[in-house]
Amino acid sequence: MREVPDPVVTPGRVVVAVEAAAVNFPDVLTVADRYQVSLPVPFTPGSEFAGRVVAVGDGVTGFAPGDEVMGTTFHGAFAEQVVVPASALRPVPSGLTATEAAAFGVTFGTAHHALTTIGEMTPGDWVVVLGAAGGVGTAAVDIATRLGARVIAAAGSPERVAIGLELGAEAGIAYDRENLKERIREITGGRGADLVIDPVGGPYSEPALRAVRWGGRFVVVGFAAGEIPRIPLNLVLLKGVIVRGFEIRTIADHRPDAVARTAAGLDELTAAGMRPGSRPSCPCPRSPRR
């Protein structure tokens, strides 16, 4: 570690004094040079933070020195100050501490987009969340439950499954010791999952895909298991499954409308009491069993 000059504000950008920064799995991959995009060294890692505005550049509206904000950046958050485009910031939602705000945007934003923008989830859907004890996994369980889905929390051990159940999942599967495909079918009464959220990859993707109902959706979020699976495309053909991918780094470039909707949706859920690690207040709204 070494001292570097304070960042200089430029037009359209904002300097923020960092009060808290979150560690996400992509940060680990970036430091190890295993992310999809390689950064030249030296660089300051860290992609998510919360703090107070220090300075605003020409053309910036909506932010002023002293404002409490949360934001994302490809790198640079693990420092005392960070400079980012104004579009990368939003006010800290009421009720969140700086620590909660720093740990909120990436995981909850990813989960909300995967469920709604990409997965087109509706109340009453059977939603399987792989890696349900991880950052995106816990957020997906929490959000899906609050939005009325019937969630199956799948993780690597009973202890990790218990985290998803505590967050409101209706059932759980420890996929390191249970047959993932058969258990999904058993829990859903033979129907299969309407939607699978997969931030894990590895050996768990294919059995989860096999347990999706005809015409269901399978959303690829990441490969925390370390292995990018090769899916037999005949499964997609025979089951009529819709397989889609999601990457939060580029969503604003392609779907700015969805970014605004997700921000509004998360604000609404936060106002109702959602925050990292919180448990839904049930009974949650659900559609009738199908």
Main features:
alpha/beta; six-stranded parallel beta sheet; disordered C terminus; 22% strand; Quinone Oxidoreductase, Chain A, domain 1; 290 residues; five-stranded antiparallel beta sheet; Rossmann fold
The CATH superfamily name of the largest domain is NAD(P)-binding Rossmann-like Domain
Number of domains: 2
Structural class: alpha/beta
Say what the CATH topology of the largest domain is: Rossmann fold
Rounded radius of gyration (Å)? 20 Å
* Strand order across the largest sheet: 8-7-6-9-10-11
Low confidence ranges = 282-290
Number of strands: 11
Task: Explain this structure.
The chain is an alpha/beta fold and 290 residues long. The chain has two domains: 13-96, Quinone Oxidoreductase, Chain A, domain 1 (Alpha-Beta Complex); 106-250, Rossmann fold (3-Layer(aba) Sandwich). The chain has ten helices and eleven strands. The strands form two sheets. Strands 8-7-6-9-10-11 form a six-stranded parallel β-sheet, sandwiched between helices. Strands 4-1-2-3-5 form a five-stranded antiparallel β-sheet. The radius of gyration is 20 Å and the shape is elongated.
List the topology elements:
Blueprint: E1 13-21, H1 25-31, E2 48-56, E3 68-72, E4 81-85, E5 89-91, H2 98-102, H3 105-118, E6 126-130, H4 135-146, E7 150-155, H5 158-166, E8 171-174, H6 180-187, E9 193-198, H7 205-210, E10 212-220, H8 233-239, E11 242-245, H9 251-254, H10 256-271
Helix pairs in contact: 3-4, 3-10
Brief description of this entry?
It is elongated, with a radius of gyration of 20 Å. The chain has helices spanning 25-31, 98-102, 105-118, 135-146, 158-166, 180-187, 205-210, 233-239, 251-254, 256-271; strands at 13-21, 48-56, 68-72, 81-85, 89-91, 126-130, 150-155, 171-174, 193-198, 212-220, 242-245.
